Amino acid sequence: MKAAWYKEVGPAKTVLRLGEHPVPEVPSGGVLVKVCASGVNPSDVKRRAGWLNGLMEYPEIIPHSDGAGVIMAVGDKVSKKRVGERVWVYNGQWKRPMGTAAEYIVLPSDHAVHLHDNVGFIEGACLGVPACTAYHCVASGGDLRGQQVLVQGGAGAVGGYAIQIAVLSGAQVIATCSTKEKADLALAMGATVTINYKSQNVVEAVMAETHGKGVQHIVEVDFGQNAEIDAAVIKSRGSIASYSSTLKPRVEYDYYGFGYKGASIEFVQVYLLSTNERLAAVTHLNQWMAEGALTHCIGHVSSLEDIAQAHEAQESGQVIGNIVLDLEKESVSV
């Protein structure tokens, strides 16, 4: 099978390799999925670049955790009725060396979730990390009906889903963005109002929009960068779900800014969701997709052969929306 892999961490064009790789055998309880689309998430790119300790967990890694395709074979203890089923997959390269940047992947049967016919493979490859992260970040706020929610980074891959899910949960959404183009996208996703964090005072704008009350819940894209803002605008007994802190990973914040309000903070790691948390995300996402209630923002699509460019596009931070490899697409590189 065609695959992309790396044997050391470093720059995308330096370490990523393309070639033929053996098709993996299907283990008991597992499924073999023909990958039609592979999602490129920030966590995939960071691991390839040497994120955190920079150590290779395996001698060779086929990257990417998200994808979508068709089940071609099943192992023992899996119903043969699943063969031919369209699926989206999650945690592909989490705690295993072979991810979705290949024509085939094997993984536990429950990691391959039914993909409704009204959702394409490209869109299905956006669900495992961005949509599941967004769902849990919103759901962690409890009953949000009639509440106001702040989504920091509303035009991001997670932010776009978070806006939609919060609205579907009955909340009104305030979203922060950096450009008019991104603000227009956030509004299209369902935000009631947007705030340009580069040209506006976010605290003043949020407090004005909430008539001085603040927000009940915050979905946070960069906790270290925005901790002071979050502390200022969160309501008493409000909650914050943060899924990243890329710009400022070492965080210092005023404990009593949050503590005096009795605010709760959850650091969300989508790869570590419990069985029940994952089931809740999968169930609600599939229900909304069946109803046509979710919009998928695709910002960049390329072929497997162009994986290095896709990684660089993710690292640039300039792409609005999800980045996906179409494994049925020919390379357009010159």
Structure description:
- The protein has 334 residues and is of the alpha/beta class.
- It has two domains: 2-126 and 296-326, Quinone Oxidoreductase, Chain A, domain 1 (Alpha-Beta Complex); 130-271, Rossmann fold.
- Helix content is 30%, strand content 25%.
- Strands 3, 4, 5, 6, 7, 14 and 15 form a seven-stranded mixed sheet that branches.
- Strand 12 (234-242), helix 9 and strand 13 form a beta-alpha-beta unit.
Number of helices: 11
Gross CATH architecture of the largest domain: Alpha-Beta Complex
Total strands: the figure is 15
Distance between the termini: 24 Å
Return the CATH topology of the largest domain.
Answer: Quinone Oxidoreductase, Chain A, domain 1
- For CATH, the homologous superfamily of the largest domain is named as Medium-chain alcohol dehydrogenases, catalytic domain
CATH class of the largest domain: Alpha Beta
Q: How much of the residues is beta strand, in percent?
A: 15-25%
Taken in chain order, the helices and strands follow as EHEEHEEEEHHEHEHEHEHEHEHEHE
Using only C-alpha atoms, the radius of gyration works out to: 20 Å
Write down the overall geometry: globular
